[in-house]
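Batch manifest, entry 17 of 40.
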Amino acid sequence: MVRDDLYITVPSFFRCPISLDVMKSPVSLCTGVTYDRSSIQRWLDNGNNTCPATMQVLDSKEVVPNRTLQRLIEIWSDSVRNGRVDSTESRPSVPSLDQVKNLIKDLSSQTENDSSLESLSKILCFARESEENRKSLARMGGFIVTLVEFLGNAGEGTCRNYNHHFLEQVVMVLESVLSKIEEQEQLRDLFLKKDLDSLASILQVLQQGSTESKIASARILETVANDAESKLIIAEKENLLQELLKLISPENESSVIEAGLSCLIGISMSKRARLKLVQLGAIKSVAKLISGPNPSSIAEKSLKVMETMSSTKEGRSQICDDVACIAAIVQKILKVSSVATEHAVTILWSVCYLFRDQKAQDVVAKSNGLTKILLLMQSNCSPSVRQMSADMLKIFRVNSKSCLSSYDTKTTHIMPF
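Output type: structure tokens
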């Protein structure tokens, strides 16, 4: 490849997850993840029996050539060598509306191959060009149905088994037009249709996809989870919540964390989903975000997720067992934003007033929480925050009187008459 490729943005799925170089001989493991042959062979020869990207134990160490991806890389490499790719960006030329209509027409009759991947790539390029383009795509008859059926027909138990690179493209195209789809309820019903398994494809992308496709997957789930039943169906999908929790790891990019949190907020409006999140250890995961230095948007959403979990008895119990978490929540009051403050006060009200946990009350007192609550009541806070603050002050006053009464009783026995 010529030296100009130093200045070209390489498509993320062309890179080997191990070496991060463009793959010369892409091969797939039984997990579906593709690597450059030399890199994965070195990994296996060193005695490893897991997939480097997913850390799943391998049922077989056999590798299968990924011909489709290899062909795409060859086409892209030839374009670079022949100067058909811009020297500062690998983005293809934007097709016209008529060209896109023809691509969509052909796409509906195609299966996964070089042509369908290329068509999806061009459609995505068209969608990202302007808001008007996204509106046009969302209004094209049958286009959204075709995308969702690609996802639904790729799940377990179906006759097709699409490569995850193909599914990534479908997910990113669908996400690009989400906000322009007028009939959100119809999208939800189609996406969660019983004879399709779209969630299995989303799960596969979350497990094996690029950062961009994982963000897109989380946003699709957030959009689809727009009523109680859909939230429950998503929460009950095996391994799906676990993968969403991986998105909010502090080691991830802010955009990934924020997408994961937004999705969890939407799903956790279901009580059973909240309980499942608590059981999966979400309290600890979210506590790490609250304790760390993060942008205000992440702080607000982290506190919101924690607030939803504090509405369950099991969630309050786990929060009370994490002294550092409670102290971090106290520190967010009057420090981030009015939204973050309201979420923080609601959590503290749940554990201190509703749950009447003595440990939590002690941590709030030691963390200068009483002073913050008093300042909050003197500020222009909402009526609900003012009421919760007043409730907590009553608890602390009762505790103070009890302590003083206990102290007076003890000193009475040693004072001379």
